[in-house]
Amino acid sequence: MINKTFVSAVLSALVLGTSGLNAQDFNLNGLSAADIRAMQADKGILDFIKPDKPQPMPVKEWTIMVFMNAKNDLSDSQLMGLVGKWAEKDIKEMKEVGTSDKVNIVVEHGIKGKGSRRMLITKKGGVFSSGEKVYGEYPDADMGDYKRVVEFAQWSKKTFPAKKTMLVLWNHGLGWIDPKMEQAPAGTGTANKGILFDDETKNYLRTAQMKEMMRQIGYTDIVMQNACLQQMAEVLYEMKDYAGLFVGSEETMLAQGFDYTGLLNFMNANPAFTHEQFGDYLVKWYKAFYAAGMNIGPISMPLDDMGATLSLVRPAALGELPGYLDAFANAAMRNNEEAAAAAAVQGVIRFTSLDPANDKQKLIAAYADLADFASILGANASSQETRQAAQNLVGFIKGALVVRNVGINGDKVNGYDYTKVGGIAINTTMKIKAVPAALNDLHETKYSDLSLSRASQWDEFVTWTDSVWRK
User: Which of 44-53, 136-145, 183-192, 423-432 has the highest mean pLDDT?
Assistant: First the structure.
């Protein structure tokens, strides 16, 4: 705790100056009424030492808006038997660089048991530099309410204007599935996930709400999801009209998240970076991070057996995805490619199961790499039409939809090589032959109600592959 008398003395010196200050310097007896009027002192004598009115903030190159929801186990959780304060770790990384003359970095930090704090991150250094300029504290903040994301982003854009903006959604992720709240506290496991999940309010951001959230926020140049399983066609399609680039992972993302020190240094060094340059930086960092292992205190944890993915997706190209999906799906169904569909269901690269602790064979892992699924089905198809439609879909993903992509390691239990992933996942038929009814009860949102399902026939195709697989 800081001595209040000491702080008061320091503040006085800062306000009044460090030169010799004597009582006569503040003697008003010699002032006439005319003198005071001339000095425009009729508002009150304290106005002499009030600071100037706040000036409009300069327009910078970038404003990064990090909506950091740690009102859950990310505030203080276990990873490989070790305790991690993951939100604090990432904020500490931000403070290594802080806001600069080119880049603002603003955070809404939801804290377990304490609501949220809204702050500008500055460079930390010295006794009097905490690295935080707090703009508000909100003990009742619902960090699972999409309207709070909207308000934070709108406030950030207005308060810290910039030519370009980046929104980071920081939390757990479960892809397109909206779990029923009473069954789904944040974390990992069968009933333990969500996106922007607030354990205290039992609220979270539904996939179907993401479109409205981004519509109200307005165009955002980069949307990064510092959360697991969010780089899915179904998720990104909801937001496609309001962003210039999506960054995220098809697979799980470690609680360590992005390297914010490196990210800020990269953006400050070249604020006019292209999407390709940004992708090159992220891919290089991701490879280096997994190669070096994860440092937690004095312990270094090797990551050789942990599968990971990261990709950058063009929102503008997502509008063309339904056409490619329909051509592929219709060709497969019209030509009765049952054997090829079964091969794809069996062999496709799948991502985290709904029950990762117990389902090592990923029997109830519905999320699969779209390019890999199309490649396997196309390679086993009997008709040229289906093979061509598969090739067209894969070519579109790799040539137009995904800017940069990296897959690391894989899943040795199932023989999945993540270096073969295409950068975007999609919902597919599960490998389990008899789907437990309890899994259907987990969902709050129907798959057929998602925007991608309405824009394409992929949901009908999955129903068809379900029937083929379970004959």
Answer: 423-432
